[in-house]
Predict the 3D structure of the following.
Amino acid sequence: MAAPMGDGGDLVMLMEVSQLKKLALLLRNNEEAQITQAVKSQNERVKYLHSVNHAYNHAVDLLDDGSATRDKYAAAAAGGGGEAKASIAEDVLEYVKYGLNMSMQNVRNCCLRVDCIGKIRAHYDSLVADLAGLHADDVANLRRLAKDTAMFKECMFEHCNKLRSGSARAMSKAFSMMLKQEGIKFPDLVKRHKNKLGFEGEFEHLTDAQKLEVYNSIIEESGRAKMPVKEMVSTAAGVAVLLATAGLMVWDIFTAEHTVEAVLRNSLNALAEVGAFAVQVKDIK
């Protein structure tokens, strides 16, 4: 059973662990076949296949670990107490699922996908460590962690959804065409928003949090999404994840006039082979 995600009508968010694992396996098998045919050098094939298998294994491990953490805290809550920790663990798993949807549906380069999943993994580990370190009666810090986790989940949903939705792509095409007509190159676009925010020095020398603000400023100007940047800059691992996904969206926005439709078609063709999707998209307030 499938349902649309966002306003695209042709979009899906996979929320069942089994379906995400199936997509990960499909990508691995497709990429193994492609690299075997396309690359003649044995050394290069081995190197690339290593990345292909890493992307698959890391996605599966992350899903298994996230599910186990969710189940552990759910069982504790069922035994009496610990409902707040169980709720946070559930949000952490949903955040992971949104991140894997983003990585596997939108990142076509396997090496970059490995990097994205690795960043999600590092952030997941930090969230789980924070959760484990809190006592059930530490209400203030549990509320803080719950708020942070919900915000990260919302941002990842936005990144994944707005990278693919129909109306978002239309907005990006218009914005991309405007930049093209004005002769604005990608470095110029980034520099303009860096200066607008009052950051000094080269973009490469900014902190990750500052870079994220620059990217999100571009995203907002394009009309693609509205990202709650300032609430997100306190957690280094989380910023690293959102910086990677925001960077993908900014490049997608800039090149929308030329490449978005082709990338989308490739993604949807791969997704069509996964089969029936179990879609459980929830409104995030």
Summary: The mean pLDDT is 81.
